[in-house]
Amino acid sequence: MGKTTGFLEIDRQDRKYLPASDRVRNYKEFVIPLGEKALRDQAARCMDCGIPYCHNGCPVNNQIPDWNDLVYHDDWAEACRNLHSTNNFPEFTGRICPAPCEASCTLNLTEAPVTIKTIECAIVDRGWTEGWIKPQIAAQKTGKRVAVVGGGPAGMACAQQLARAGHDVHLFEKNAKIGGLLRYGIPDFKMEKHTIDRRLEQLAAEGVTFHTNVHIGVDKKAKELANEFDAVVLTGGSERPRDLPVEGRNLQGVHFAMEFLPQQNRRVSDEPLMNVEPILAGGKHVIVIGGGDTGSDCIGTSFRQGAVSVTQLEIMPMPPEHENKFLTWPDWPLKMRTSSSQAEGATRDFAVMTRRIIGDGGKVKAIECVRVDDKMKPIEGSEFELKADLVLLAMGFVSPVHEGMLTELGVQLDPRGNVAADTATYKTSLDNVFAAGDMRRGQSLVVWAIREGRQAAREVDLFLMGETLLPR
Questions:
Q1: Sign of torsion, CA 139 145 151 155?
Q2: Cβ distance 135 to 164 under 8 Å?
Q3: DSSP structure string for 131-182
């Protein structure tokens, strides 16, 4: 390491945000990057710890100490190359990953961890600015054709790796644009969509053919796809949302988060909403049911649309302010976290169950709630009502959609309803059909999707060629 005492001399410094009063006026990213000197200082805090647990904390196994050292020594180009050796899209993870690597940082045992995510984002953003990130075109073509179904991060990573191995890769996406939840779920204020578009230009130059507005199992038979291609990889995500089976669920103004969020993303990108009823939070009292990242995205979007108030409800108890690091490290700890969207003015309430949704004239006007104990049992006498003009259900996703492609193919499902495939081969119950990402593992992080897309590509290449040089 370049500065073995850096962690003793330099305090953690991370990126700042524009003030909430400024950032809620638009849908642009609002993170203020660190300067070059500050970044080199932060990289110097990486402490030559001997056994870097950040490797395991990171699902794509980024070589974090290596590129921290390269940044400290001002070798940004090599840092960019090293970073891309394990992660196809570090600009995505550098913006929206919760950074489990930082929780696993050895320094996090007794001090504040290294600003790994910030340095990662700075490396890749500089790589784009300097022109270091170029298409990697295969020297030879294999003559093998592969279909990847689902244009999210797993599908994009898988398609890119397979194209670099020389295969003829076709990426199918049911929506008008490639990107999956990156494009239609994550708001632009967290990640502007030009970051996806420039990657798509790279993938196209590497030989990936895009087929948008093609819903496999609806517009094109899935079995035809399996017969036309030498291999098929299913990366369609986990899109069946968890519902709230209570009285009043069908009232006007009660919607799934993934009915609400894609609409605003389409507005920002001037993409037609299609034949759907506009869902807008302007001038309304908004209730978000669900305390995770999707719920936070609903909060930030609601404020930008002009919501009068936003309340987020979580059925789980309030987590502790701080974790016991000596008990939880290097695993991801349960502790109180406040997202940038929540900090924009949302009211948060924990250990709350929704009993029913109250309407007037067919429209939602309030919700009836009750507090629950540590066994999720209602506490007698704790009932209360909250005014609501818009209720957004953000309680996660239970499985991929079975109707259509999966039913037609007849692939075996696991007990949770995901496509059954192990991480050794990523192969489904059908001979030439593979599965990766949320469609295989269930709802998860973008960084896990990238990992699975990369690993599945290696197994497909091995299946087609009998050998592979793609990294695991």
A1: negative
A2: no
A3: T-------SS----EEEEE--SHHHHHHHHHHHHTT-EEEEE-SSSSS-THH
Residue 349, H or E segment: strand 347-350
Segment (H or E) for 353:
strand 352-360
> What crossing angle do the helices spanning 293-305 and 257-268 adopt, rounded to 10°?
50
Degrees to nearest 5, angle at CA 304 with 301 and 307: 90
pLDDT in tens, the chain (472 residues): 668 899 999 999 999 999 999 999 999 999 999 999 999 999 999 988 889 999 999 999 999 999 999 999 999 999 999 999 999 999 999 999 999 999 999 999 999 999 999 999 999 999 999 999 999 999 999 999 999 999 999 999 999 999 999 999 999 999 999 999 999 999 999 999 999 999 999 999 999 999 999 999 999 999 999 999 999 999 999 999 999 999 999 999 999 999 999 999 999 999 999 889 999 999 999 999 999 999 999 999 999 999 999 999 999 999 999 999 999 999 999 999 999 999 999 999 999 999 999 999 999 999 999 999 999 999 999 999 999 999 999 999 999 999 999 999 999 999 999 999 999 999 999 999 999 999 999 999 999 999 999 999 999 999 999 999 999 8
pTM of the model: 0.97
CB 428 within 8 A of CB 410: no
Q: Which of 179, 246, 265 is nearest to 395 (CA)?
A: 246
Find how far residue 323's CA is from the centre of its chain.
24
> Dihedrals φ, ψ of 281, to 5°?
-100, -5
